[in-house]
């Protein structure tokens, strides 16, 4: 074990090839999150990455609003993995550094690569923990796996991941863990007057699917479920209100809320958490077909409220309107919805945090605590009557999908719109548009679709299941 100021850890790898010996030298102190690869240290571990963790006994910073010790471990282990990952090693063993959960998250999140469509795939080394049967490591591996499931789904091209195929992916991911996966058809949605949802799908040749999921904690037959709702637009052109072509390919990830719903329920089921969860995912494409919804059209949602649609690119709130009403009918203990809903949220917070809106202080405090633990933070935005009046006191219908002053506070107006379709006392809308993609902001994720905030929602689920939230 190599040590320096504070606490360092080693990532030891078992190589498949011989390496020349390089003499050890200090090269100066390691900065936090930086790595140095040493060769010929021992016969058992001919290649070792030593990475700086920084100061010991870091605590949660009230300004940063996250557990800095956990975040340092995630970042450091990820740096160590990357420094070894391209060396053609068969396996890498990781020192848990007194937090196996964070170490496993850092290693497995850094190891993710989307290679499904490559004819020649790079084989990744097997990642294990020095300490056998480390329960934190096992749990962290599961948390990372759930987020990586969401990342993979978000990366799959839209011609492959259609609404129908997304439903099959949910079957593949969840049924083996005992989660009931129920894909509902167009006719099912039509019979329930989900006209807002179906209006978005009109221009596409791909049939819509309303995906319903049920995880039952052991022995909890009659307990009220937690509802998780995810926006599932598998490709968003904007419809008749067509988006500009630049970066439109990234709209394959406009089902990020749906992907994170799958990932978070996967974690709950894999950890066998004692809680009931119902998932609701409206899946469709938003395309400019010959019978697509037109600006100015009015539809009546499943709760009986009429909606004027003046911009077909504000479609996520339409499909969520029916999904939230349907979720509310199941009398859940709380509802959390995730959606890549507004570009305005990306402008407001960038990739720093998920913007959240809630009618419940209890749910907000629980989610804030979850984000502090996971390192994937949330920031509370206003859900005031000031915004509600702008979407309800305007236009031809009960609710307007843009609002009176649509160029201002777009994420707040979208949240106010969703509120009109919720009857649950504990509801939270998570606008994940700003965290959809990672460039270099989160060191242990790498470039590509992020799968955020899967681990935060899974942590919330565990806090609720353990009775720590009052929900």
TrEMBL record:
UniProt keywords, alphabetically: Aminopeptidase, Hydrolase, Protease
InterPro entries registered for this protein in UniProt: Leucine_aapep/pepB, Macro_dom-like, Peptidase_M17_C, Peptidase_M17_N
CDD domains for this protein: Peptidase_M17
Keyword Isomerase tagged: no
Catalytic activities: an S-substituted L-cysteinylglycine + H2O = an S-substituted L-cysteine + glycine; S-benzyl-L-cysteinylglycine + H2O = S-benzyl-L-cysteine + glycine; L-cysteinylglycine + H2O = L-cysteine + glycine
GO MF, one annotated term: metalloaminopeptidase activity
Entry's Gene Ontology BP terms: proteolysis
Pfam family, one: Peptidase_M17_N
Record EC number: 3.4.13.23
GO cellular component: cytoplasm
Residue ranges annotated for the Cytosol aminopeptidase domain, each copy included: 311-318
Similarity-based family: Belongs to the peptidase M17 family.
Reported function: Cytosolic metallopeptidase that catalyzes the removal of unsubstituted N-terminal hydrophobic amino acids from various peptides. The presence of Zn(2+) ions is essential for the peptidase activity, and the association with other cofactors can modulate the substrate spectificity of the enzyme. For instance, in the presence of Mn(2+), it displays a specific Cys-Gly hydrolyzing activity of Cys-Gly-S-conjugates. Involved in the metabolism of glutathione and in the degradation of glutathione S-conjugates, which may play a role in the control of the cell redox status.
Protein name: Cytosol aminopeptidase
Organism (species): Chionoecetes opilio
Species lineage: Eukaryota, Metazoa, Ecdysozoa, Arthropoda, Crustacea
